[in-house]
Amino acid sequence: MKIPIVWPAVILAVLIGLCLGDHRKLRRLSDRHAELTATLANRTDSSSAGRIPRDSRAHRGAQTLAAECLELGKNPEVRSGMPREQRREAELRKMELLNRLDSMNPAEWEEFLAEIRTTAEPGAKLPQFFLYGALQELSEDHPKIVLDFFSQTLDGLAEKSTEEGTVSVALGRWIGDDPAAALKWMESNPRFMTDEVKQKVVCGAAANDPKLAFKLIGELGCKRPEYLASFAAFSARTAGVRTDMVAALRDYIPSIPEEKLRKRTQHDAFENLAGGIVAVGFENGLKWINETGLTHEELAGFADGLTSHVKGLETGRWLEWAGTALQGNERDETVKVMMFYWGGADPSGAESWLAGTKESPQRDLAIQGYVDAVSSSEPEVAIEWALALPTGKPREGAFKLIYKKWPRHDAAQKAAADAFAEEHGIK
Question: Structural domain tally of the chain?
Answer without folding.
Answer: 1
